[in-house]
Amino acid sequence: MTNSDQLKKTDQSLIALLSDRLSLLAASELPSLDEQLADVAPLLAQAGIPESVWAGVLKSCHATLIPKSATNHVSPRQITIIGGRGRMGRLFQEQLSTVGHNVSILEHEDWEYADQLLSQAELVLVSVPIKHTVDVIKRAAKYLSPATALCDITSIKTQATQAMLEHHSGPVMGLHPMFGPNIKSFFGQKVVICLGRNDDSFQWLLDLIKSQGGELIVSTPEEHDQMMVIVQATQHFCRFSLGVFLAHKKIDIEQSLTMSTPNYRQEIDIVKRLFSQNPQLCVDIMLATEERCNAISFLANTYSRLARLVARKDRDALIQEFENTQSFFEEKINTFLQPLNTTVQRDFKPQMHTNISI
């Protein structure tokens, strides 16, 4: 049997197995992407198959099932997305329209139609740049019915949630999608939820995210913003700095990738995705709060301090820095460090909110 014949036979077996997998997924509640990866991680490692390859298979399987199941038993709702022509706004418009909801868009040039677009909406979703979010919430609230559910998808939650609660008397919730606009579904993606008022009004939206395999993480706005200083702002700065460095040094990225480690390839991919975004969005994420600016400044000072040790070739001091940090991670390893293919879902549930179904 030739290699071509063997390949065809193997493909036939794979197709049959994928068909079985799709049938099983369609007949059961889907475990999360992390759980599915964790189950087979040892087998992938033994076979020398990158987890990214298997993750692609999982996502494709799930995406195949969504059109068949997502539109079942959906009562169409009237939804208006403020900023719906932005990349994240378009993503939510596509996801909501696909399952049968009626989605309208309100952009900055459409405010003469605000009463028509907002007063009859069952859900108003604010998807505008960070620096405009509070002002847009204040402006939109004047047109909203007390029954309209209002939420935002900004990465800063304290100010936005406070503004919605203050200026709108109806249902309020803050959302932060922990992903960019290039995804095809919510499968394997995390969405942070900051509860506000009348949480049940958003249950259908949360159910949609869950039905696509998304993970819902409940947090207070304050705790969310504290975590995002590290999870988002400082990470943006690190990758922003690396990208600027590579550009200034005119590094041949393609050549570097021919002799790179998996970690380097992954980091370059992340940097590339960062610089494919809107520059204003990236910069606003770093400058959004004074706390973020201070943390980035402290991080930059840390870089400078360590760079001075390198410049002095102070081997002992660098080893001491390494060992001190090593001790920090060893102390925490049993409480937070998980295998790279798994994550821990933390639900921060304020005691006054007990009716939301996650």
What is this entry, summarized?
The chain is α/β, with parallel strands linked by helices and 358 residues long. It is built from 14 helices and 7 strands.
Could you characterize the architecture of this molecule?
It is a single chain. It is built from 14 helices and 7 strands. With 358 residues, it is of the alpha/beta class. Strands 2-1-3-4-5-6-7 form a 7-stranded mixed sheet, with helices on both faces. Helix 1 crosses helix 3, helix 2 runs antiparallel to helix 3 and helix 9 crosses helix 11. It is globular. The relative contact order is 0.09.
Major sheet: arrangement of strands: 2-1-3-4-5-6-7
Q: What gross morphology would you assign?
A: globular
What's the alpha carbon Rg, rounded to whole Å? 23 Å
Please provide the ordered H/E string of secondary-structure elements.
HHHEHEHEHEHEEHEHHHHHH
> What number is the mean pLDDT?
87
Q: Largest sheet, if any?
A: 7 strands, mixed
Number of strands: 7
Query: What oligomeric state best describes the polypeptide chains here?
Result: single chain
**N-to-C span:** 53 Å
Number of helices: 14
The unreliable regions are 337-354
Structural class: alpha/beta
Proportion of residues in helical segments: 55-70%
Strand content: 5-15%
